[in-house]
Amino acid sequence: MPIVKEAAPKYVPIAEDLVLGEFGDLLSALPEVEAVLANYEHGVMQTWTVVNELPDVTESRIYALEGELMDRFPDMGLDFHIIERRGRPLNEIISLDLFSAYWLREEN
Hints:
By secondary structure, this protein is an alpha+beta fold.
């Protein structure tokens, strides 16, 4: 899972890079997941999972993978969010500049 951005002013420490990498690897198995956005502030890694549509089955699968990540890193403060684009371009919803690291699914 390539992390395509690491902003120097908001550097994500090594342990958090590992957690984000693991989370991206887990979520990349779900074709509905388009991106994983992250910030690490005040001892908590906040992640946003981006999908276009969020049917219940996809939401349940994402929640299960979030639980798996919490099991893998029980001492890490983790806070999860889901962004449902509903056909809108991601840059109309939120700026990637707000995140210290992110993974975007490569388009075919």
